[in-house]
Amino acid sequence: MRIVAGSLRGRKLTTLTGTDVRPTGDRVREAIFNALGSMGVIEDATVLDLFAGSGALGLEAISRGAKHVTFVDSSPQALDVVRANIAACDCTDSCTVVRSEAAAHLARNQTTYDLVLLDPPYEFDSWAELLSGLEAQTLVIESNRPIEAPAGSQVLRERKYGGTVVTVMAPILAVASDRPPSEEHS
């Protein structure tokens, strides 16, 4: 695995091994971040990489101009890999690593993020609970099926890449406020 684009393009990343691990492939990461770049949501963003795994999604965000990424995972082994990848990319000052279950981290931390990257294990099924605890301008969800937007949010984009479904959501108010005001005619 490697960083696909941006200032860290080509840097090799270490991944976890085993059958429980499903790192986001280069093609899917490139598609996700090209879409986010065209939406203008990466530059100077504060990012939460929840279920960080190897940290590839968050590091791709740093490479493409995010200001800071918080990596959260419950696995000590995953966090060792995240720390090694952060060091290999020489971006320690732009990163925070937290060991925690996702829901527990959200309950303790009331930070509002510009961008939240969610890539839990495919068998994860607590979407309603998790999404209700998030405050972000843009959410990117990677799953094995479409995920319904919670009340107050809407799906902006949904694409399938093999067995992976990527859903981009935003609060309805954030989407409406990004539109230019309509002109009034007298």
Describe this protein with a few key phrases.
single chain, 186 residues, alpha/beta, 6 helices, disordered C terminus
Number of domains: 1
Number of helices: 6
Number of DSSP strand runs? 7
Which CATH-level-2 architecture?
Answer: 3-Layer(aba) Sandwich
Give the H and E element order.
HEHEHEHEHEEEH
Description of the structure:
It is a single chain. By secondary structure, the chain is an alpha/beta fold. The chain has one domain: 3-Layer(aba) Sandwich (Rossmann fold). Helices cover 29% and strands 25% of the residues. It is built from six helices and seven strands, in the order αβαβαβαβαβββα. It has helices at 26-39, 56-63, 76-88, 102-108, 127-132, 172-177, and strands spanning 46-50, 68-73, 95-99, 113-118, 136-143, 153-161, 164-171. Strands 3-2-1-4-5-7-6 form a seven-stranded mixed beta sheet. The longest helix has 14 residues, at 26-39. It starts with 25 loop residues before the first helix and ends in a 9-residue tail after the last helix. The model is unreliable at 182-186 (pLDDT under 50).
Please sum up the structure shown.
This protein has six helices and seven strands; from the N terminus they run αβαβαβαβαβββα. It has 186 residues and is of the alpha/beta class. It has one domain: 3-Layer(aba) Sandwich (Rossmann fold), CATH 3.40.50.150.
What are the SSEs and their pairings?
Blueprint: H1 26-39, E1 46-50, H2 56-63, E2 68-73, H3 76-88, E3 95-99, H4 102-108, E4 113-118, H5 127-132, E5 136-143, E6 153-161, E7 164-171, H6 172-177
Parallel strand pairs: 1-2, 1-4, 2-3, 4-5
Antiparallel strand pairs: 5-7, 6-7
